From TrEMBL:
In the C-terminal section; belongs to the peptidase M41 family. It comes from Hanseniaspora valbyensis NRRL Y-1626. Its cofactor is Zn(2+). This is ATP-dependent metallopeptidase Hfl. Keywords: ATP-binding, Hydrolase, Membrane, Metal-binding, Metalloprotease, Mitochondrion, Nucleotide-binding, Protease, Transmembrane, Transmembrane helix, Zinc. NCBIfam families: FtsH_fam. GO terms for cellular component: m-AAA complex; mitochondrial inner boundary membrane. Residues 272-415 form the AAA+ ATPase domain. Residues 44-66 are annotated as: Disordered. Pfam families: AAA, AAA_lid_3, Peptidase_M41. InterPro entries: AAA+_ATPase, AAA_lid_3, ATP-dep_Zn_Metalloprotease, ATPase_AAA_core, FtsH, P-loop_NTPase, Peptidase_M41, Peptidase_M41-like.
Amino acid sequence: MNFSSNFNKKEHPEPIVAKSLPLNSNFSNYIDLFKNSLNNLSNSQTPLFNNNNNKDNNNNNKDPKGPQKPPIFAIVLFVLSLLLPLYTNGSPPNAITLQDFISNYLTNDLNRENIAKIVVQDKSVAIVFFKNTSNTISFSIGSIKQFESYIERYSPLTPIYYQLDQTSLLSLFGKFLPSIITLSILAWFMRGQSSGAGSPLNRLSKMGKNKATVYYPENYTPPPGAPPNLHNNLRVTKFKDVAGCQESKQEIMEFVDFLKNPEHYNKLGAKIPKGCILHGPPGTGKTLLARACSSEAGTPFITISGSEFVEMFVGVGAARIRDLFKLARTLAPCIVFIDEIDAIGKKRGNNKISNGSDERENTLNQLLIEMDGFNTAEPGKEVVLMASTNRLEVLDDALLRPGRFDRKIEIDLPDLEGRKQIYMIHLKKLKLELNTDLALLAGRLASTTAGFSGADIANVCNEAALIAARFESSFVEFDHFEEAISRTIAGLQKKSRVLPPDLRKVVAYHEAGHAVCGWFLKNCDPLLKVTIVPRGSAALGYAQYIPSDNNLMTEEQYFDTMVMALGGRCSEEIHFETVTSGAQNDFQKVTAIATKMCKELGMSKKLGYINYSNDSSGGISVTKPFSETSAIVLDEEIKKIVTTAHERCAKLLRDNSAAVEKVAQRLLERETITRKDMLELLGKRPYAEKHNEFEKYLDIKE
């Protein structure tokens, strides 16, 4: 096939060489749109890049109306990026495949005769023009030689024109338009928002700033550059509002006096302690003491949480430590309080994977350096560091040594008198009857809530007020407090859970077994009440006792406690043909006590005076500090102690089966019986109470 001869035929137009084909009938409209955009750009007063750092620019950045609007150029580029793909580099109109063209046009005589010419663009796309119509079709071709062979085979007279590779200015602009838009928007962000408070660059630069909150005393003027005065936002707490930890409060008050009257101590040659750490169980008032200290110190009080130093970026924690103490030295004399310091103060070297160089350790190292770097030699510029944690054993030894934390103040659970003082504070906030004796009510509540922390007591008082409001009572009464205490101990009362008569009887005898064992055993705690009212998710009944505040226990006390815990299962074995799963929690308590006696307390003659416990300081241990032979002996001794306790419990309940029957029947009748009912049914306990401080509160009339 001779393409050159066809190329010069007169019946066909001259070949299309280095000429572009019309892209779309609306192309002229697009050109007009582009020209108008450029005209708007030339008339716009908002430049893309503004390097002027004059006062006008600074005033614009401080415009209270908000951040600057994007420049018109960025808007134009964005609109063009949406419209340009419609006119450039898009799919050709009426696109089909090469196989469709061969089967539907070349092999079809009628359609083949209507083909006027074929134009090949860029050696990749063929556009077919038809006679007597403006319609066209297009398709992609993989090989020019193969395409020519198809034409020569099926339609040798069809002329083929080749359009040279050309790229219009519009096409080039479309290719680079996305990059231009990206760079323009990035430049606008860097120019227009680099000085804004919420800009990404500004946030990144402030990553190392501490997030501490500063409270100033009244009539205090902060130095230039210091944070604003937040005294009005401080929840005022005085030392008189803190009770139940008199000794700890006294030591904290000394720190305040150190800062208020340093001359008194300097005359005696005393130096102010550099720091103190408050530790104890949760809810005992560590943060409350710090809050009271902030209110009465008379100096700036800086508070921050330990977790505020933990970030995903390397070096942020150490930078925030430096910034915190820089602020503290500016405000000196002052107090810095770090709550939950165990977030950054854990022992170093436990993490073998990070090889002792992780971010938390870097933060701790910076804290140690800053604490040693206190400038306490200058009079009147003292900085005292306070911290709190309930996991003192996991803190690094270098952090706890004298010279950093000179004092370790333990805040333990309050005793009977401490609980009474805490109740006195919270009861004053409640609406009680006018003739209520606050001291007597507080003492009675304190005697029934042994082991409660200050937070638990506050929760009990609040729950009592909520219960009174639920029943639309005019005052908060003692019954409301009792219900609040029961809810705190055993959970919400399940009034909708109705037990079948046979199951209810089993629960009554189970709880009666506990009550009778505790009543006739010498070393058991006094019984307060027994109930078979379902509470919580699993408890179908429970017995409440009054434990002693003395933490020192004898071997006989541990053993009697196990006997009392097994009273429920033994009572089921005696009075029923089968047993239930209600003693699951009792078995857990018994096993824990027996294990502690053998492993930690040396109360097994066969094992001797060896501590077999594995102290991993709160971590996970995979090894045992004893041999397999010792483990076998340990299991045998634990089983022996539990078996002995079960035998003694069974004998005690058989000897007092009548007492069990009385208590069980009263429970089936009333569902809840108190210590007064037990005295009526069984008489006084055969042994004198070892701690009878509660009797003066419980023996009063209802």
